[in-house]
Structure formats: structure tokens, C-alpha cells
Specification:
With 103 residues, this protein is an alpha+beta fold. The protein has helices at 22-30, 82-85, and strands at 2-7, 40-42, 51-53, 60-67, 76-81, 91-94, 99-100. The chain has a 5-stranded antiparallel β-sheet. The protein has a two-stranded antiparallel ribbon with strand order 2-3. The radius of gyration is 13 Å and the shape is globular. The two termini are 23 Å apart.
Length: 103
């Protein structure tokens, strides 16, 4: 299921310590490889049920995100490109792709 998320800027050094990078942490937790951005953008028709995945494969990071429009204030890790990592507005992600940043 796709949900709205928002980037949390400036969190990389403030979050709990891990060994390796945040994208490596995501890969270890999911047993999957992060080869492209896991962010989705709304369809140009603005049909909220249609979302398309970002095609960017360069400069991927384990970005810290929060669920938008939610009472859930937890931080999650999501492999995203540098463009989505610096985005100040809401974008889409699959809930199954989010990994809790701290346990």
C-alpha cells in the first residue's frame, strides 16, 4: 500500500548509531538491495491512487522519513535519491519499504 511520507532533514548524525550507512542498514533489515530510489511521485493527472516510482539510481541514501498525515511520529529509513532526500514536500512510498530507524 502506498502512503504519504515526508523527509526529515538533518537527522543523519542525530539518529542512533549504526555500523555502516543508513542504506546498508536498510538492506540488512530487509534483505533486499537498494539499487534505485524507493520514492514515488503522484501521477500527472493528480489521481491519488496512481503513483509512479522515481527512476533515479544515482546518489542514493538511506533517508529518514516520517509518515505524513499520521499520528505515528516514528522515524523510518527509506532508500531515496538526493533529490527526494532534500525535498520539503510530501511524496509517496510503499509502507512495506519503510524500516524503523530505531528499535
Amino acid at each position: 500500500m502506498a502512503i504519504k511520507v515526508k523527509n526529515i532533514n538533518g537527522t543523519g548524525k542525530n539518529a542512533r548509531q549504526i555500523s555502516g550507512s543508513w542504506i546498508e542498514y536498510w538492506e540488512q533489515e530487509t534483505n533486499r538491495s537498494a539499487k534505485k530510489c524507493f520514492a514515488y511521485d503522484e501521477d500527472a493527472s493528480k489521481d491519488k491512487s496512481s503513483v509512479y516510482r522515481c527512476k533515479n539510481t544515482d546518489n542514493l541514501v538511506g533517508g529518514h522519513v516520517m509518515k505524513a498525515d499520521s499520528t505515528d511520529d516514528k522515524w523510518y529509513i527509506l532508500p531515496i535519491c538526493s533529490s527526494h532526500n532534500h525535498l520539503d514536500k510530501v511524496f509517496w512510498a510503499k509502507e512495506d519499504d519503510l524500516v524503523l530507524a530505531s528499535k
